[in-house]
Specification:
Number of strands of chain B: 0
Distance between the termini of chain A: 73 Å
Strand content of chain A: 35-45%
Strand content of chain B: under 5%
Number of helices of chain B: 19
Helix content of chain A: 10-25%
CATH superfamily of chain B: Cytochrome c oxidase-like, subunit I domain
Shape of chain A: elongated
Structural class of chain B: mainly alpha
Largest sheet of chain A: 5 strands, mixed
Number of strands of chain A: 10
Oligomer: heterodimer
CATH class of chain B: Mainly Alpha
CATH architecture of chain B: Up-down Bundle
CATH topology of chain B: Cytochrome C Oxidase, Chain A
């Protein structure tokens, strides 16, 4: 098949460009520790220190290490407010009690879907103190626009 | 090579068939556009929905907007348009014109069932229909019938193709028929996901025959069809850009073999890309998400080939019309012709839409834009601008061709397509901007308790764009209705089939055959989806619809 030299060059440049983008994705995800959820992680029904997996809670695992068990339901998050000191690494477990919901913490790299029957899991570190808005970003009925929460990253001094 | 202006005339029955399909599609677009105005105004703080008849909630309007515009308008227009293009290209009637009419009635009954469920607020589940949001059975059955209709046209096209092969052995498949066949073969393969989802899960569940469904499994089936469906909307526009627009611009098709190759590449590459809608889903492995990222990037290549070939074809037109120098040919293009300008502006916005699509497909960047307004900002450029403007521009020649009635007002058509492009630019800009600030999509943002002040300015752009688009939409329908009522005869309106440049060598066999592409597409689906679907099917996590009706 005859291909015009300009067109051949155009196709080669297109493919090369996409390869550059692909490498950028791999490098950024590895170097910046960006996580997206993978296969569902089941939680033990009750942890050794008595936290039930079907209830909302935030618990400290060690210095600067937290776990949050979050439930999404029409039209609220439980807990609706999560407080951790600045510099904490938090692992979120996300469940849905009814429909699909979204869980996006604005201005951070935390975003995942809440799907009934699945448990979402991501881990992120929050260094910058402040109040972060958590929005449900998947349509979940007439009250969807009222579904939000807050992540409060406190100044280290405030928690001492 | 077949001459460009054939004397072949399609039968009056097939002309009527194409016309009713296209008009039924546009009727849905009109209602869809009006719903869009309500959403745009709501985002800038003007909520008209409480004072509207029929419409009870923002989300009902949003469901109607999505389903009417991208499921019903597109399906009807495409079945009408491509059925006609195939018949004209083959220079023979469809294998069964009667089956064509059966297709119309099946799709019409389906559309009316779905319309009723939506207008009665019994199906406010948005076009994605995610379980366990549960709609009235009429909604799912109606949409299933529309899909059945598209598959009946596929059957009709394949039978027509086989009959044509017997009648004209050794000939190359004519370009228009080729484009129509590729589109419907791709869609036939892609539709498996949504057919399985509806027939085996959502319809029995909505009828109460089964109590529970798996939300992740049904969602995965949805996106197995739900991304390729955008190429089902786009390929008819590509057909027009490759095979008609060069003639409308006074040029010739720059490279026929590469045009055919780009079309054929869509058969395998459209199919295994749906996980880029599910990057943030728990229960799908990161490895398969990465594979779908690569495959989604791959589908960008035939679109880049299209950009080159179509622009080169237009350059031939601009130079034939006396254009000089590096870019002088651009000014010589027929910008006063709404058929040309509508498509050219659509292509321009499509370039931006394609680039934002690469952002969505990127494994990591997607994290930032997933389910924000950035996503509708993207697809209003691709579907809302490129596809809709191409279909509008096509109707400016096709409706006079089918009815023999002249386009009522040509300058109005030109103003209207320009207004549409301007409105879409404003609206998409506002949406993308608000999305990057974190504003969620599919949300009644005017009433959102958490709405941030920084979102106000971009959301005002969305509202302004929506108003401009509505004005453009109303002007389009005014022109359409007055064209249908126009007593002024159109004269002979030709199908503007472009002539390709002469080729250097023979066309390779694989560019005139479908089977290698179908087989490779099936293999890619098996690799890209097989293991995940198998795992989800064997470990189903079913749930019932919530006791409280969510909408």
């Amino acid at each position: 098949m005859h291909v015009h030299p300009y067109e051949r060059a155009w196709i080669i440049v297109s493919v090369a460009l996409l390869m550059v983008f692909g490498v950028a994705i791999v490098v950024s995800s590895l170097s910046m520790g960006i996580q997206i959820p993978g296969l569902s992680a089941r939680l033990a029904p009750v942890s050794p220190d008595g936290f039930a997996s079907d209830e909302p809670w935030v618990r400290q695992l060690g210095p600067g290490r937290y776990e949050a068990n979050v439930f999404a339901q029409m039209w609220a998050f439980q807990p609706s407010e999560i407080r951790v000191p600045a510099g904490s690494t938090v692992t979120f477990y996300l469940h849905s009690r009814d429909l699909l919901h979204g869980f996006k913490i604005l201005d951070t790299n935390v975003s995942l879907m809440a799907i009934p029957g699945q448990v979402g899991k991501v881990t992120a570190t929050f260094n910058q103190p402040g109040e972060y808005l958590i929005v449900c970003n998947e349509y979940c009925g007439v009250g969807h626009q009222a579904m939000f929460g807050r992540l409060i990253v406190e100044e280290p001094s405030a928690t001492l | 090579m077949a001459a460009n202006a054939t004397s072949y005339q399609v039968s009056p029955s097939e002309k009527r068939l194409a016309l009713v399909f296209i008009l039924t599609g546009f009727a849905h677009l009109l209602i869809g556009i009006l719903m869009g105005l309500l959403q745009g105004l709501e985002h800038m703080g003007i909520n008209l929905i409480p004072s509207m008849p029929v419409i009870q909630t923002y989300y009902q309007a949003l469901s109607i907007h999505g389903v009417f515009n991208v499921l019903l308008f597109t399906s009807f227009f495409i079945v009408g348009f491509l059925g006609y293009m195939a018949s004209y290209g083959f220079e023979r009637p469809l294998a069964s014109v009667r089956l064509g009419w059966v297709t119309y009635w099946v799709m019409l009954v389906g559309a009316l069932l779905t319309d009723w469920a939506l207008l009665a607020n019994r199906a406010t589940v948005l076009y994605t229909s995610y379980a366990p949001l549960k709609a009235h059975p009429a909604y799912y059955i109606g949409l299933a019938l529309v899909v059945v209709g598209t598959l009946l046209l596929l059957l009709n096209l394949v039978r027509t193709y086989l009959a044509w092969r017997r009648e004209r052995p050794g000939e190359r498949i004519p370009l228009l028929s080729f484009g129509a066949l590729v589109t419907f073969i791709m869609w036939g393969m892609a539709s498996v996901g949504i057919v399985v989802e509806f027939v085996f899960f959502l319809i029995p569940w909505s009828l109460g025959w089964v109590a529970e469904v798996d939300p992740l499994l049904t969602r995965t089936f949805f996106w197995e069809s739900g991304h390729p469906i955008v190429y089902f909307w786009l390929l008819p526009a590509y057909l027009s850009w490759y095979f008609l627009l060069p003639r409308q611009a006074g040029g010739r098709l720059f490279s026929e073999p590469l045009a055919r190759l780009a079309f054929l590449l869509f058969i395998p590459l459209s199919l295994p890309v749906g996980f880029h809608h599910q990057f943030l889903d728990p229960g799908v492995s990161q490895g398969y998400k990465a594979i779908h990222t690569v495959l989604t990037f791959a589908i960008f290549i035939p679109s880049m080939m299209t950009a080159f070939t179509v622009l080169a074809s237009l350059e031939l037109g601009g130079r034939a019309r006396g254009g000089q120098g590096l870019l002088g040919w651009v000014t010589k293009l027929p910008w006063k012709d709404p058929v040309f300008t509508g498509q050219a502006l659509g292509m321009l916005l499509f370039a931006l839409g394609g680039v934002s699509g690469l952002i969505n497909a990127s494994y990591t960047l997607n994290l930032e834009v997933h389910n924000t307004l950035f996503i509708p900002g993207h697809f209003h450029l691709t579907v809302g601008a490129a596809v809709v403007m191409t279909f509008m521009a096509t109707s400016f020649w096709l409706i006079p061709h089918l009815t023999g009635r002249a386009l009522w007002n040509r300058p109005l058509a030109l103003v209207q397509v320009i207004l549409w492009a301007v409105g879409m630019t404003f609206m998409s800009r506002g949406m993308s901007w608000a999305g990057m600030l974190g504003a969620p999509r599919r949300t009644m943002l005017g009433a959102a308790t958490y709405r941030e002040a920084a979102w106000n300015e971009p959301l005002e752009l969305v509202g302004v764009g929506g108003v401009i688009l509505t004005i453009a939409g109303i002007l389009f329908f005014l022109n359409l209705v007055l064209t249908l009522l126009n007593r002024r005869p159109a004269g002979e309106v030709e199908v503007p089939l472009a002539e390709p440049l002469p080729e250097a060598g023979p066309l390779p066999q694989y560019l005139d055959r479908f089977m290698p592409w179908v087989v490779s597409g099936a293999l890619l689906v098996l690799i890209g989806y097989g293991p995940t679907i198998f795992r989800l099917l064997t470990t189903m996590q079913t749930v019932a619809a919530p006791a409280l009706n969510p909408f």
